Amino acid sequence: MAISRPPDDQDDHARMTGPSYRGISNRGTATRGTANRGPVAPALSAFRQAAPGAAAPGVGGVTGQSFIGRTLTTARDAARRALAAAQAQAEAIHDAQRPFFLSTFRPLAPKNARLGDKVPIKVVEQPEFGTLLERRNAAMNVVFVAEMVRLRPAHVQRNLQALAQRGALVRSYSPPITAATKIHPVDGNLLSPPPSQGRAGAFYDPGNDVVVIRIDQVDAGIVAHEACHAYTSAPWNAMQIVLGVYDLEPAATEIDEGVTSEMANLALFNMAVATQVKVPGMPIQAPNAYAGYLANVQARAARFMRASDNSAGTPGPNAIAAYFEGDLTLQISSSDPRKSKLRLGTKIVSVAALL
Ligand SMILES: [Zn+2]
Fold first, then answer.
1. How do the domains of the chain map onto residue ranges?
2. What's the predicted TM-score (pTM) here?
3. What is the Å distance from ligand 1's center to 108 Cα?
4. How far is the CA of 350 from the centre of ligand 1 (A)?
5. How remote is the CA of residue 225 from the centroid of ligand 1, in Å?
6. pLDDT (tens digit, 9 = 90+) per residue, 127-182?
């Protein structure tokens, strides 16, 4: 299954709230020359120093226009250099994390060959980031809508097909769909999904198999979080859709985002333990992979980890097996979805325990 999670999920990293990992995340800040702050003459002088090929005024004539043109070119070059630096930094973070990622999860998810792969990372500026995100969401919507319709209970599926054929939506319809026909609230969005909020700072694009990070979001926690999304098993991804179909949102998205963050945190913690100089009495400082998600998501992850492994603070073997290995099955009770059962590794839990 190509889809990794619902297109209108909350995988929107509005801002990075986690501390950056100083060991590997020395974010370069753009330096602005003080010479450019004054009036035109000092700026021009600074410009001439920076661009020795430029003619002096009055001789060849640096017109205002060419000055602006060259300044813009210089600014573009600076932006390109910053982008290249951020890209290199993101790749360095990923390379640094990989051994700890593999040693943390490989033993508990040996069948996930994907864990050995390196996920490509693309660092971009706005507005390219926005364009790529929209493109991903549009592609995922197509798959998502098809999957949602396919997974709906049979009577709803028939109604949806009839609606689709008539080109109509839920509000006005006539026989053979009667007034008694029950259309699920979720179905109202199926044929025209609402546009997703444009607040993301990073995302994994399953269609192109690439992690895309906005230039100001490059950080160890973000890279680890998105990488985890890229390594999930197909059954884990399918679980999000199935839970969504049975109206178990926002729990489905919160489980995905929370457990993703906890998996990334576990690998980051192992990396910190292995690489930090230990100071007696000082706790290990690891980057945070929650990537802007709030307490509700963290609480959901804790509930999931408690249900799967009886350890609310860190993912255990059953959670890891379910997430990376796809060692899970879902037995949906369509009369009462809350009574559905979920097998996670060796543990069977009631969906109600996760809600
Ligand atoms: Zn996420």
1. 106-354
2. 0.73
3. 22
4. 24
5. 6
6. 999 999 999 988 887 777 777 767 766 666 666 666 555 554 434 333 344 444 45
